[in-house]
Specification:
By secondary structure, the protein is mainly alpha-helical. It has 27 helices and 10 strands. 59% of the residues lie in helices and 4% in strands. It starts with a helix and ends with a helix.
């Protein structure tokens, strides 16, 4: 049955004829996700699809039998896959109709309640299939059309969804209703700042969604910031940590949607001041996220995605709230350091190293965990010392370059010269913090050549600077390092083999001539704007060199070596050009003479 025949059946207004036609269409198109690319054919099909959409919406305004109602919504779901033909569904009337069938419509009435709105009552026995189909249709429409998102904001759909999310503990809503509620909330908050703010402020989104995540994962709270899984017993005599059963796919899917919504509404939380109530909510959420990091799913891919969303959200939390990662008591099988439970920190480190070893999309996959470790190490002494023990153990290998090897330190030092500036800077910052922002210690572990980028950016090329507030550490130099310290090349960070002196056997005049050749080459490159001569300023940062700087350098050269440099500095640009042209002419003449001799030899 083609579209024209289906439309004819719909136009009769008969429910049975419409039901049969729509069921035939839905069965035929259920797996269709791509649409025709021929412009003329697409234009014709688009008109028919829009007409069918208008007729279906008209049917939904009537009192329909449940099977016909479901068929109409299935048709809208299929039609809304085509982003070019959603026009019938983005009006206020159409969106209101769909939201009413989804059970999230609100009406502005005279009922006294916060915000002056009241939810349209749910049916005593709601048809969950109808609700799911309506939610899927609204998700498709909002995904493809920004006007629909604005209409959703006008209709206050976020309020209706939040009201049902509060009922997360009730059994009447199945997985699909809960999942598509969350998916629609994510789509709305991802595209409208106003709805993010409304969910965060008016609807107390952090607490609302934290409670929903708590209920989804089935958590229990042995202590204020210590989280467990309900039904999982811990054996106090066991030396192994309690094995948490993997989370089902349905729970993981809902949990990831919650994490994505929370990420949307907390994107600026670590860049603004939070009050005491907000800080408490964030710390509660942080404790749940720690549990997420220690949990797994049935499938490895789901586990990695779940951990990725958890890490992204942790990076949004205020730094002062990250101490909840260290709060759980040390138990049998836990990783303990300085009396603190380091399970979460160790998991973050292992996660970061795995992403580093893969080497793909480092900016998206590795930086969130690396940034989180950097900030945690900056504010928590125990975390920094634990990470330093893992990443920068006492230095013993002084014969290889810092970037050579398979240790985590070697891998991170290699990142310090990565082509991606963000990756390079984050790796350097992490190691710099582990060195307590000490320039000498940083150079010791990375070499001056690798460290120069960060030091130049911070104006620390001369050393010194404010090392920040860090505790004192005991001397960590190994015997191997102390013995070789005087022989280590600070630029490369290793003991170099003795190299022959390239100027050995030269007279002073020859040395001076080679030096002037180098000066002339740099001068030529500078005048051609190929390079920009730089010098180290008094503040430790790099600054441009000018003629005055060159004269000051000349004055510092011993008197006997100034003659040629002085002559070079006094040459005007025009004189230099004339001199270069003269030299070029001489070279051309010599080449021509040599070429003529070769030609004459060939003739003879």
């Amino acid at each position: 049955m083609d579209l024209n025949a289906i439309i004819e059946n719909m136009e009769t207004g008969d429910q049975d004829a419409a039901l049969m036609a729509l069921q035939t269409y839905n069965k035929k198109m259920t797996q269709c996700f791509t649409f025709t690319t021929d412009e003329e054919e697409q234009r014709e099909d688009g008109k028919l699809q829009e007409r069918l959409g208008e007729l279906v919406l008209g049917f939904l305004e009537r009192d329909l039998q449940p099977s016909c109602q479901l068929a109409c919504l299935e048709t809208i779901r299929i039609l809304s896959r085509d982003k070019n033909n959603v026009a019938p569904f983005i009006t206020h009337t159409a969106m209101q109709t769909l939201s009413r069938h989804a059970g999230i419509a609100i009406s502005h009435g005279n009922v006294h309640c916060e915000g002056g709105v009241v939810l349209v009552p749910f049916a005593e026995n709601p048809d969950l299939e109808v609700i799911v189909e309506a939610l899927k249709s609204i998700c498709n429409i909002c995904l493809h059309n920004k006007v629909a998102v604005q209409v959703g904001q006008d209709l206050q759909l976020i309020v209706g969804i939040a009201e049902r999310v509060k009922q997360c503990g009730e059994d009447q809503w199945n997985h699909y209703v809960r999942f598509f509620d969350l998916r629609l909330m994510f789509l709305l908050t991802a595209q409208r700042v106003a709805m993010r703010t409304q969910l965060l402020r008016e609807l107390r989104g952090v607490s609302l969604l934290s409670n929903h995540l708590d209920a989804t994962l089935g958590l229990c709270w042995p202590d204020t910031f210590e989280v467990g899984r309900a039904g999982v017993e811990v054996d106090p005599d066991s030396e192994e940590p309690a094995e948490l059963p993997p989370l089902s796919r349905e729970k993981i899917e809902r949990a990831m949607e919650i994490l994505k919504i929370l990420f949307n509404i907390t994107y600026d939380a670590n860049r603004r001041e939070v009050d005491e109530e907000e800080a408490a909510a964030f710390r509660h959420l942080g404790a749940i996220l720690r549990h997420c990091l220690m949990s797994s799913a049935d499938a490895q891919d789901d586990t990695e995605e779940f951990h990725s969303h958890s890490l992204n959200l942790l990076g949004n939390l205020p730094l002062s709230c990250l101490d909840v990662l260290l709060m759980p008591k040390v138990q049998q099988g836990s990783i303990e350091y300085m009396g603190v439970n380091m399970d979460a920190v160790n998991m973050l480190l292992e996660y970061m190293e795995k992403r580093l070893d893969r080497g793909k999309k480092l900016k998206e996959t590795m930086l969130p965990s690396l940034n989180l470790l950097t900030e945690s190490a900056r504010i928590h002494r125990e975390t920094r010392k634990f990470l330093r023990m893992k990443v920068l153990p006492p230095l013993r290998d002084v014969k290889n370059l810092p970037e050579v090897g398979n240790a985590l330190r070697n891998k991170l030092v290699r990142l310090m010269t990565n082509i991606d500036t963000d990756v390079k800077n984050c790796a350097a910052e992490f190691l710099f913090v582990l060195c307590k922002e000490s320039v000498s210690r940083f150079i010791k572990y990375t070499g001056y050549g690798n460290a120069a980028g960060l030091l130049a950016a911070r104006g620390l090329l001369r050393g010194g600077g404010n090392p920040g507030v860090y505790s004192e550490d005991e001397d960590s130099d190994t015997e191997e390092y102390r013995e070789a310290k005087s022989q280590i090349n600070p630029v490369t960070g290793r003991v170099e083999d003795e190299q022959p002196n390239p100027m050995e056997g030269m007279t002073e005049e020859q040395k001076e001539l080679e030096a002037m050749k180098l000066v002339n080459m740099f001068d030529k490159l500078s005048r051609s704007n190929i390079i920009q001569p730089m010098m180290l300023g008094s503040d430790g940062s790099m600054t441009h060199m000018n003629s005055g700087d060159l004269r000051r350098m000349r004055d510092q050269i011993p008197q006997g070596q100034q003659l040629h440099l002085q002559t070079q500095l006094r040459l005007e640009p025009q004189q230099q050009e004339q001199q270069q042209e003269h030299q070029k002419e001489q070279q051309d003449q010599q080449q021509q003479q040599g070429s003529g001799s070769e030609d004459e030899g060939e003739v003879e």
